[in-house]
Amino acid sequence: MAGDAKVSHPVKRVINSLTAGRLFPVNASTADEELHEMVDQASERGLVEESERAMIHSVIDLGETLVRELMVPRTDVVWMEGEKTLRQGLSLALRSGFTRIPVIDENLDNVIGIAYVKDLARRVHERHESENEEKVAQHMRKATFVPENKIVTELLKEMQRNQIHMAIVVDEYGGTAGLITIEDILEEIVGEIDDEYDEDTEDVVWVDETTARISARLHVDDFAESLKIELSESAVEDVDSVGGLLAKHLGRIPIAGSTIVIENWRLTAERPVGRRHRIATVLATRVDEDDTSAEIQQ
Q1: I want to staple 277 with a disulfide (CB 3.0 to 4.6 A). Which of 23, 59, 91, 97 is the partner?
Q2: What homologous superfamily does CATH list for 69-190?
Q3: Overall pTM surpassing 0.70 (yes/no)
Q4: b vs e for 145-170, b when ≥16 Cβ sit within 10 Å of the residue's Cβ?
Q5: pLDDT in tens, 108-134
Q6: Residue ranges per domain, the chain?
């Protein structure tokens, strides 16, 4: 941020109050570097706790952060088609772990709304037959679109004012670049929000002679070595991890239960973990050479 850039009133108010007595005057032309230095000095004098110091630094930096820096990228977005039945929509939501999911028409560049699990579940509860008779598009909410170069602090104010939880991020050509939620922004301020089930996963754990539980983050070369298989260049092109391997062959982000068969091994995505519900482990099971059932299943 340039030296003459404006500093949001909340930041000035926090700094002034924490520095007790305006020891460090703040005005609209105060540069980020000066603000950082003021907070550090206040911390050294015992006027600001370490956790508060880190948080204020994050708030200051947020003033020059663009939406594209915090968004969930297009490749990691879980979506559903508007023509899916309510039953199918609820199944996808439960398996993915998300309570709000973008709804598309023909492809991800044509987002037509946002499906809320509570809306779909309420409708099915009110009219049981609707789960197979009605479509997700009939019960979705309006989607909010924001440019990827928008300043995050401006977006946060708009989301709070309009009570918006999720926004679809579009690039300069109008295509879908990703999505961003209030949690993504808050996490930038307070630090990573861990899920209660987050845990370190061993790379490979053999359940028996024909079944192994594999970390989705394991590199594909190590994966191939562990299972003693050879993967073609086309199979692993632009892929680094086992999770990426599933996504490549599925054509979308894997969710719990997603399955592919490759080199006589069936790979099944297991439960999602963390706030972004990424797949942590994949169950690899050896199959017969002539078993081609469920080669790809989302």
Answers
A1: 97
A2: CBS-domain (3.10.580.10)
A3: no
A4: ebebebebbebbeebeeeebebbbbb
A5: 999 999 999 999 999 999 999 999 999
A6: 9-64, 69-190, 204-297
